[in-house]
Design brief:
Structural class: alpha/beta
Number of helices: 20
Helix content: 40-55%
Order of helices and strands: EHEHEHHEHHHHHEHHHHHHHHHEHEHE
Radius of gyration: 21 Å
Distance between the termini: 16 Å
C-alpha cells in the first residue's frame, strides 16, 4: 500500500487501441520517459469508436493489449461518450480522469505549441467567435468546419491546425479542462513517423486481405503486421480471429441500419439525438439506392454532414438515443467509473483512491443503479449486444458477468 500522505502521480491517456499498434507503444514509452513514477491509466473507448463504427476487436481484447504493453489501469469510456462528437468524447475522458485523481493527461499532437492558445479561444467563446460560427452554419458548413472558420478569424492559420484529426481531440481535452478548471496538467507528445490514421489504415488493409473463411490470421498477414504491431497485439488478435470476435466488414452493420431506417417512421427518427431537420429525408432518399454501408454514407456526405458525423448518427439510431437523453447525460456526465483491467500497480492505485474518488468505481454495469447514470449503463449493455450481433463471434461475452482483466 501507499504510505499515508504519499503523493501518487498518475497520468491518463484517452485511447481506442483499435488495435494497439507501434504508434501507441511509442506514445506510451514517451509518456513513461517523462513521468517515470506515474501510474498510467488508459480511458479506453468501448465497443463503438469516435468515427461512428464498431471497434475492430472488442474492449476486453484491447484492454489485454494495453496491459501487455505497459498500461497499469484501464477504465471504460462508455459508448455514449466514445461514439460521439469530439467535445462529448473529451468530456467523458476528462471527467473520468478527474474523478480518479489523475495528475496529467498525455496525448499526441502535430504541433503542441499552438494547443494552449487555441484552447483558450475555444473555452472563452467570445461574441465574435460565436457570431462567425453561427454565420458559417447558416451558410451550410458542418459544425467542425464552422469552428475552423471562426478560429481562422481569431488567429490566422488556426483553422487548418484545428482541422487536423490528431489535433481536434487534443484541443477538446484542453478546452474542457479549462472550462471545468480541473487540476489536470496536459502532457503533449509530438507525433513522429506515419500519422496515427495512416498506421491504422495499413493494419485494416492487411486484416481485410485475410481469408475470412478461416478463423485464424494467416502467416503471411502476421509477417507483415510485425512491422506495425507489438507481438502481444498480434497474439491477442489471432485469438480474436479464432473466436470470430472480429469486425472487419460493415456488411452486417448495414443490414441492421437498413432494417431500422426502413421500419422506422419519420416521427421516431426526429426524436433521435442529432437528427437535424431534413436528415431523416436524406437517409430515406439513399437507403434504398445504396449497395453497401460505405456507399450509403458516401451518398449522404455533404458540406453540412461529414462521414464521421453520419456514421455516429446511424449508431445513435440503432441504440435509440433520443434528444432528451443526450441533453441530460451531457449535463450530468457518466456518474461512475468502470474498471476494465489492471496490473498489480493499477490495482494498488485503485485501492489507494477508493475513498477519495469523486465518482463511484464499479467493476460491473449492474452495480450502476442510480438514475440518470443507469441510462448510460443501459446504453452500454445495448451497444455491447449490438457489437456481438454484428461480429461473427462463435464465443459470446456476457457484458453483465465479465470481470476486469487481472494482468498479474
Amino acid at each position: 500500500m501507499y504510505q499515508k500522505n504519499e503523493r501518487i502521480i498518475s497520468c491518463g491517456i484517452a485511447a481506442e487501441y483499435n488495435p494497439f499498434h507501434n504508434g501507441h507503444l511509442w506514445h506510451l514509452r514517451q509518456t513513461r520517459s517523462k513521468l517515470p513514477d506515474a501510474i498510467i491509466i488508459a480511458v479506453l473507448s468501448a465497443n463503438f469508436v469516435q468515427r461512428g463504427l464498431p471497434a475492430f476487436i472488442d474492449k476486453w481484447a484491447r484492454t489485454k493489449m494495453a496491459l501487455c504493453n505497459g498500461v497499469d489501469l484501464v477504465l471504460e469510456l462508455p459508448s455514449f461518450f466514445s461514439c460521439n462528437s469530439g467535445m462529448v468524447f473529451a468530456q467523458g475522458v476528462v471527467d473520468t480522469l478527474n474523478a480518479i485523481g489523475a495528475s496529467f493527461i498525455s496525448f499526441g499532437a502535430e504541433d503542441p505549441t499552438q494547443l494552449e492558445t487555441l484552447s483558450c479561444i475555444l473555452s472563452q467563446e467570445s461574441d465574435s467567435f460565436k457570431q462567425t460560427v453561427k454565420k458559417a452554419l447558416s451558410n451550410g458548413a458542418s459544425y467542425s468546419k464552422a469552428v475552423a472558420i471562426a478560429l481562422d478569424a481569431e488567429s490566422e492559420g488556426a483553422g487548418k491546425f484545428a482541422s487536423q484529426p490528431n489535433n481536434i481531440l487534443a484541443l477538446s481535452y484542453l478546452t474542457y479542462i479549462n472550462k471545468k478548471k480541473y487540476a489536470i496538467t496536459p502532457l503533449s507528445i509530438k507525433r513522429h513517423g506515419d500519422g496515427h490514421n495512416e498506421c491504422a489504415s495499413k493494419i485494416r488493409s492487411l486484416i481485410s486481405s485475410n481469408n475470412r473463411k478461416i478463423f485464424v490470421l494467416q502467416d503471411s498477414v502476421k509477417t507483415e503486421l510485425r512491422s506495425l504491431l507489438p507481438e502481444s497485439s498480434i497474439e491477442i488478435m489471432d485469438n480474436c480471429f479464432k473466436d470470430g470476435r472480429v469486425i472487419d466488414s460493415n456488411s452486417k452493420l448495414y443490414e441492421f441500419i437498413q432494417l431500422m431506417l426502413l421500419s422506422s417512421d419519420k416521427a421516431y427518427l426526429r426524436r433521435i439525438s442529432g437528427m437535424d431537420e431534413g436528415l431523416e429525408g436524406l437517409f430515406a432518399a439513399n437507403i434504398r439506392k445504396a449497395y453497401s454501408f460505405d456507399d450509403f454514407i458516401g451518398r449522404c456526405v455533404c458540406a453540412r454532414y461529414t462521414r464521421s458525423r453520419l456514421q455516429r448518427q446511424v449508431i445513435k439510431i440503432l441504440l435509440g438515443i433520443d434528444k432528451w437523453t443526450e441533453l441530460a447525460l451531457q449535463r450530468t456526465g457518466a456518474g461512475y467509473v468502470r474498471v476494465l483491467g489492471y496490473n498489480p500497480a493499477g490495482k494498488k492505485y485503485l485501492r489507494a483512491i477508493s475513498k477519495t474518488a469523486k465518482l463511484n468505481i464499479v467493476t460491473r454495469l449492474a452495480a450502476v443503479k442510480e438514475l440518470p447514470y443507469k441510462k448510460i449503463a443501459q446504453i452500454e449493455f445495448k451497444a455491447s449486444s449490438l457489437w456481438e450481433l454484428i461480429s461473427d463471434a462463435r464465443v459470446k461475452i456476457d457484458e453483465a458477468s465479465t470481470k476486469p482483466v487481472d494482468y498479474s
